[in-house]
Specification:
single chain; mainly beta; 13-stranded mixed β-sheet; two-stranded antiparallel sheet; about 0% helix
């Protein structure tokens, strides 16, 4: 499928869908299984246009000849759910010049089993998620264009019973072409997790990371990392809280650098941290803007 500029919007090698037809009589759309292979998706919008390259597809299925009628606000009688998802050889390119963000993802294999999917309330409950051989990058090109008014969207609540990620890499680059986050994950396991964007909370039961590398860079100017961020006459409150019952790190490399600061040798320098072959067992980890605490059971590393 091509967009109006004759660029590739979507190419698909194979798609399989298992639909529970009997649920349609009960106003339910239930996909027991969906499988996609060899997918190449390219989403794009230019700097001068707020519409994406797929907007023509949505317009084609809308009737612009009829006058819009005011419909009373009421909940949809239809329910939608997906139980199992399988993806192989997926490539996603999200090139948003208008929003000043570029995202690229190449995924070899994904298996997903969903417990609950409530789009109206933005509730997503994952039973099992398996990811293997994935590379991803996020690049911010400049401060994005903003729209006036407060969003009425409900922020997602995501829970997960089991997550396993093998062989994943991620890089985040800012508008000055500075890599701020570089991650090479060999194996990451999560058992029991919950993310609430509305309440700004992350709850983890057990998090394990082995033979992986993580490097975080920050700018020396910390004026943007304050509790209150004022942009475009709006105030954003950073009130994130992260807690984990148990954290297991096995033979990882973790580095933290404040850019453009002097690397002081032979003393503890919080602006330049580099721990190799780091192994750690910690319980009752808690982070907030006001404090960070944990019970360390075991720690070993090389500098």
């Amino acid at each position: 499928m091509e967009d109006l500029r004759k660029d590739t919007l979507l190419s698909l090698g194979q798609a399989s869908v298992n639909l529970a037809f009997k649920d349609l009589f009960n106003h339910k759309i239930k996909l027991n299984f969906i499988e996609l292979k060899d997918v190449n998706l390219h989403l794009k919008r230019i700097e001068q246009d707020s519409l994406f390259n797929f907007n023509f597809f949505l317009t084609a299925f809308s009737d612009t000849t009829k006058q819009k009628q005011i419909v009373p606000d009421k909940k949809s009688l239809w329910a939608f759910n997906i139980e199992n998802v399988s993806l192989e050889n997926i490539k996603l390119n999200y090139d948003d010049d208008y929003g000043a963000t570029s995202v690229a993802v190449a995924l070899k294999h994904l298996k997903l089993k969903i417990d609950k999917l409530d789009l109206a309330q933005s509730i997503y409950s994952i039973d099992k998620l398996f990811l293997e051989d994935i590379t991803s990058s996020v690049i911010t090109k400049r401060h994005p264009k903003t729209t006036k008014g407060k969003s009425e969207n409900i922020l997602p609540k995501i829970t997960a019973n089991q997550i396993l990620i093998n062989n994943a890499s991620f890089i985040y680059i800012d508008s000055l072409n500075t890599p701020l986050i570089i991650a090479d994950i060999n194996k990451l396991k999560l058992k029991g997790g919950a993310l609430d964007l509305e309440r700004q909370t992350v709850l983890l039961n057990n998090l394990s990371l082995s033979k992986s590398k993580l490097h975080v860079n920050t700018k020396s100017n910390t004026s943007e990392d304050t509790v209150l961020k004022v942009r475009n006459n709006t105030t954003e409150i950073n009130n994130w809280k992260v807690s984990a019952k148990e954290i297991n790190l096995d033979d990882n490399s973790l580095a933290y650098t404040v850019l453009k600061t002097e690397d002081r040798k032979n003393i503890f320098d919080a602006t330049h941290l580099d721990y190799r072959h780091l192994s750690l067992v910690a319980t009752n980890f808690y982070y907030s803007i006001s404090k960070t605490e944990a019970s360390i059971k075991k720690i070993a590393y090389l500098l």
